[in-house]
Design brief:
The protein has about 325 residues and is mainly β. Helices cover about 0% and strands about 45% of the residues.
């Protein structure tokens, strides 16, 4: 959906669409069924005007559409190995087109004047400036990307690989690393990364059913700060020089459990692989989305999951009785019958 406007991006098509657009009236009025289907393998993006109930504009593609991002000025269409950038008009005007590594989860972030998406090498982030057309590349990880996000200003990028142990924060346009956060020691599937509205926190969810809140550094020098044993997860061990880096890394300031829902036996977590797509046709990643984060304001966020047991949970970020950062669960609801 385009903000809170009447415009919604819809994706469909394929060989057996639930609501086919390729129905035409048969010229033989004596037919018992006056409608026939024209075989097509095209996939379509429609910009739907919900007030007038008409399609404002549309685009057709030959391969499945993994993700769409829209703003008042731009339309981004993500395919498995391609990202198309268009000016939002009728019809849309293509201004750039880039090849990518396999991108089954449709990773793409559209910010203020900038688009972030995977590059042509695993773990690489490509940044496209919509005004100038300038392109920057960040070699963010050695393994394929699993999640990325832009802050509201478009001057910070958060990335995570399919390893899921580290989350890295980069500045734009300098493309330098500010800080590296440790989600945990064991590998995990990162479901979602999202900056708070004021850009002071970063929320992260994973298939461990855990929501993490990381406090973002103030100024570029914050990344060089020494860990404080009083607040660090490993206490005084964070200051011992010969221990593995896991003991001195920056961990989340608060965590909470979210519910992924009671899916059928055999559903399993979303695939950890960021380069292989299998499962439900037409669904990015092949599995129902879980752990999707949406900030309502700088202290309140929702964690949303699709699937057979689709639900959302509401959390607020504050401080507990000891004065430490804490996450409080405010409520939840199943949103599908």
């Amino acid at each position: 959906m385009l903000g809170t406007t009447r415009y919604i991006a819809l994706v469909g098509g394929g060989k057996q669409p639930k609501f086919p657009q390729n129905k035409v009236c048969s010229p033989d009025d004596s037919d018992s069924d006056p409608w026939v289907f024209i075989t097509t393998d095209t996939y379509e993006v429609q910009i739907w005007n919900d007030a007038t109930q008409v399609v404002a504009t549309s685009l057709e593609f030959k391969t499945p559409i993994q993700r769409v991002r829209i703003s008042q000025s731009h339309l981004i269409v993500v395919l498995l190995n391609n990202v198309g950038i268009y000016k939002m008009k009728s019809p849309p005007e293509k201004i750039a087109d880039y090849e990518t590594v396999n991108n089954p989860f449709g990773l793409c972030a559209l910010g203020k004047g900038i688009v972030a998406f995977p590059g042509r090498a695993p773990g690489q982030v490509k940044l496209f400036e919509t005004v100038t057309g300038n392109v920057s590349i960040i070699p963010a990880h050695e393994s394929p990307l699993r999640a990325l996000a832009l802050n509201k200003k478009g001057d910070m990028v958060a990335t995570a690989s399919e390893q899921g142990t580290l989350v890295r924060l980069w500045t734009y346009p300098s493309c330098t690393k500010i800080v590296e956060f440790r989600r945990g020691v064991d590998p995990a599937t990162i479901f979602s990364l999202a900056f708070s509205t004021a850009g002071s926190m970063l929320a992260v969810t994973s298939d461990k059913s855990t929501l993490h809140i990381f406090d973002l550094p103030v100024g570029l020098q914050a990344s060089a700060a020494e860990p404080d044993p009083k607040t660090h997860k490993w206490g005084i061990l964070s200051k011992v020089p010969l221990l593995p880096r896991q003991f001195s890394d920056t961990y989340s300031s608060a965590t909470a459990k979210f519910d992924m829902g009671e899916e059928p036996v055999g559903w399993g977590p979303q695939s950890k692989s960021a380069t292989f797509n299998a499962g439900i046709p037409g669904v990015p990643g092949g599995r129902p989305t879980k752990g999707l984060i949406g900030w309502l304001d700088d202290q309140t966020l929702l964690v949303i999951g699709a699937g057979q047991d689709a639900r959302w949970e509401k959390f607020t970020v504050g401080v507990d009785e000891t004065g430490r950062r804490a996450i409080f669960r405010e409520g939840w609801r199943r949103y599908l019958d």
